[in-house]
Amino acid sequence: MSNETYVVAYEDSEGQHVLDYAVQQAKKSGASLYIIHVLEWSPYTFLTPQELEERHKRRTQETERAQSAIIDPAVKRVEAAGVRAEGKIRYGQVVEIVAETAKKLGATMIFVGRGGGNGLGARIFGSVPIGLAQVAPVPTVIVPQ
Amino acid sequence: MFHHRFLAALAALCALSGPAAAQSIDETINRIFADYTGWYVGLIFADLPGTNFSWIALWLVVAALIFTFYFGFIQIKGFVHSIRLVKGDYSDPDDAGEVSHFQALATALSGTVGLGNIAGVAVAVGIGGPGATFWMIVAGLFGMATKFTECTLGVKYRNEYPDGTVSGGPMYYITKGFKERGLPGGPILAVLFCVFTILGALGGGNMFQANQAHAQISNVIGDFPGWITGVVIAAITFMVIVGGLKSIARVTEKVVPFMGIFYVLVSVVILIMNADMIGWAFGQIFAGAFTGLGVAGGFTGALIQGFRRAAFSNEAGIGSAAIAHSAVRTKEPVTEGYVALLEPFIDTVVICTMTALVIVITGVLNVDPDTGLYVWNAEAGRISTEGEVVGVALTSAAYSKAFAWFPVLLAVAVVLFAFSTMISWSYYGLKAWTYLFGEGAAKEIVFKVIFCLFIVIGASANLGPVIDFSDAMLFSMAIVNIIALYLLMPIVRGELGSYVERLRSGQITRYKG
After folding, report:
1. Domain residue spans in chain A?
2. Which residue has the higher pLDDT, B366 or A102?
């Protein structure tokens, strides 16, 4: 068994094929998966006073929901396939967080789905896989649908 | 936003006349208010003997000076650190998703930046001459220490509830802080503060804003009944604060900062276009600050107007900012004090100064070609201006000399600023309301409905004495709040000392930058 870690940028159950592909690869090399779900967030947005007051409560709710609806089932699915997995929810910019996590963990590969990267918006503003292609510190696999 | 008294006359001119029946109701309400509250309003805004400087403005300025010295010029020593905090250099990445320093600052600013920066400055320069700008900047700089003090306390003594929501503000630091220091009278002062806050929120934070918003709209599209504006704004506000329609609030919260930035940019462009006159304008400001340049009241006239505008525009000492800032996620209350001290800087030192410079440079103040001095309109008690306009109209005239489209933009900005100020004050009022009557959906709805009704009243009526009374309430908040700040400032000093020590020793982590 290797000590390798693969980071999987996981959006939701629609990205299960990414998870499954990462599991396949991990099985071959004996790596473990670090599944990360990022909630888009910028500390420079503007909120009303009411939103400020409720922010901590909302964040707790958001995290709980993401944990039970997204991360827990994903970790279960990977473990059921016989691969070690850990899940994490983070707030921020997806590309930035994924790249930074891979670096911090010393991960050897990143897996990411193509997601909605074909629309006009993605062409103008870029998408997560395009962004990762530019900044990822380790080899990155873009898994098509 | 504390422009009301000076603009009351302007409001009177601009506010539309409602139906005859409403007029008589106006008159009745005005008379009742004048009869029963006039003495209190007179007391709050009373001038110091032998001057035309109200003691309440002195109260605010003296407090700002005391805090400045007590905290060793924190606004200068801590300025760079404040900016680093806002940038998030000291924010734990694991706390992402919580209220950031930037967000708390932006929200608090959207409650204060408004008519005071546009109309209030025009009034100050119109009466006190360019020199008023100098004293306005000085007062703004000192006011930063007041904000530092109140916002540190706001975070330190806020209530955190099991469901994760927070409530903070002077009423909380008055009760908890007084108890901690073994001081008597905390609960009474806190209740008093809340009563003043509720009445101030309904008046200065609501009726006056609605009134001015309507005045601006009718200036641009022509006269129409004020209740129409009132009902529309009240309906939108109702949807936001009762219906929880966050999208509108979010749009406003996004557009208002953008408007503020745009206003500063336009000012900078005008200054660049007149770059050769900037030196002259500063010359006028400095010379006027100490000589008055022949303006009535001379040196003291400029000083009084400048101090008054600054104190009334950035709300330092009123206690409202402490309510807005207390929601931030931080382990160190002092960090929010640092961030809050940027508020008077942005509001007064930057935005108000821009307005003043543009007014001076564009030459809308009439100058006597023979003497080179400003022409004094003795009848109106101010400098004679092009078209003899005052307040918002003077600012509008100055900016339109460079850009003809500016008045339309300014009208939009005024309406949006008024709306965001109302949203902020509905929250401040609500916090005071729930402090008095307890939390609970039904109790909160009562306040919110009252708040919306007052928007309609404010927009359709010209209730001078009512607005004066509400102004008096806002400054009464400052009396209670500043007394509490004096008594609690040793606690802030303790917090600051410990924080600076740990910052030096590297115990406080800097995550980036």
Report:
1. 5-143
2. A102
